Input
Amino acid sequence: MTQRNNVILIVDDEPDMCWALEYILNKRGYVTCKALSAQEALELMAQQQFACAFLDAKLPDMDGLELGRLIRERAPDMRILMVSGYFYRDDVSIQEAIARGVIIDLISKPFLQAEILRVLET
Amino acid sequence: MGERGTSAADSPESQRYQQLYDMLLEAIPSSVLLIDRDLRIVSANRNFLEKNRRTLPDTIGHRLDEVFPAIIIDQMDFPGRIRQVFEKNFRVKGERMTYRAPGIPLRIYYYSILPFSWQGVVELAMLLMDDVTEQVRLSEEVRRVERHLASVVESAQDIVLSTDMEGQVLTWNTAAEKLSGFTLYAVRGHNFSDFCAGDDQGEMERIFANFQAGREAQMAEVDLKTRDGGRIPVSWIFSPMKDHLGQTAGIVAVGRDLTERRKFEAQLLQTQKLAALGVMAGGIAHEIRNPLAVCSSAAQFIMAGDLDPQFQKECAEKIHAGILRASMIIENLLRFARPSVKPDIKELNLTTLLEETLSLVTNQARIDKIVLQAQWPREPIMISGMEGLLQQAFMNLLLNAIKAMPDGGGLGVALGQADGEAWVRISDTGQGIAPRDLDNIFDPFYTTAPVGQGTGLGLSICYSIIKQHFGTITVESGAGQGSTFTVRLPLL
Output
């Protein structure tokens, strides 16, 4: 496994959220890369490959689920996780996105470190 | 007309009298019959014949009971009375008779029976019948209308009262008695102003002064005192009461108890506010859970221990900042949600009020990919008003703007002051308002939103709040061109 495949993309317009996720993942040994908007995320995707992405549900320029669909088109094997305070797990749009394989799972804010790592590593 | 059985040896002079008599008899609007001792009809004038649909041949020489219905003859005791006329030279005057006969509409007569004496002997009885059907009907109608009007006034739920030009109470209906607890007896002759709440008495005196100066109808909201020491809000219409010469003779006041309406208005405001809160809820959840997630993560980092002191401090700072942010959002929300039962008018800075209001919808705007552009003036813009209500009005305008841009756009907020007025402009780049809807947007329950997505109350509530503050609200819009709402309020 090359290092490149361990890089994780964090997309959240809230710098402090990125800070928290970066700390959790970096401590575990992952390399992270952050984007504060969907546009920024897509630009990063054009430059390099990511093993996984954590997406906020509401980005200033696009819905997180919409960004998930765009990423899925570009990288069918990438693991995409949604981290959101907006949705709850039983939301129809979340259930649908999981069923269609757009995202693997939804993690509600606030979350436990262990939860992030469990979802990432199972 | 008819034969009177008098001697044929008539002199020209008596023929002359005969002609005059005939003429009079035909001309008077009364029925005239001459009846002899045997109760036979000797003479009948045209009026009688026409009213009773008879001809001379089947009347003259016939007995009374062949001409009048038996029931009338019995009821009126014509034979007995006519006998008295003959025997005692007695006159029957002004009796009322209801004449019902087959094939003839009901008539009412006043009748008299007069003796005709010649040289001391009663020769004939004259039955004079005046048809008063119309008069009776009219006076009954007048009485009926009077009774009807009185019961309209008495049954009305609204207060109806009248005063003279000086404002002394003349009448006071049941509703007025019930609402105030003061009886007509207690108020009659007293000055109406005395029954208005203390701080409204001046207003009432001004209204009466206006009438004395020739003003027409006036409207006012003046509280009425109640007997138990309370007061009820009443909306009044005062109108001058004109006499038959067109002179103002007094004043009529119709008043409606506003207690229920005030309650309803307060409920409506609160309901609409809760509906607006529902719209905001999604954005607020997101906005609060973000700082919570940061706090939670930072706390978990500290709990794990073994941290670089610098990083530990950073974690604590993030927690502190996150808590402040979350509680700020909650505080703004609470302030908005709190019912303003007794709104206080106070001096306030419109800029601060708008900044606070805008901060409540920032989250929602961000979620909907709306770019906020606010232009805050440097100097404070001071107005006098009810903070909670004004915030609700601006909140409605902001939420409307956001709703008009489901696919994102720009929301502009600008304010300033000019010509003694403060102005606030809220503009969006959304779908705009169709020209046919523009005239109705401030009407209650007018909505173009699908069922369940809009109460149609937001703008009508804005309108009434701004009106209460002696301001105006206008809109410029076109379908597909976005909308701009401008609110103007008097400066302090």
In short: Chain A has one domain: 7-57+69-121. Chain A has a mean pLDDT of 90. The helical segments of chain A are 15-27, 38-47, 64-74, 92-99, 113-121. The beta strands of chain A are 7-11, 31-35, 52-56, 79-84, 105-108.
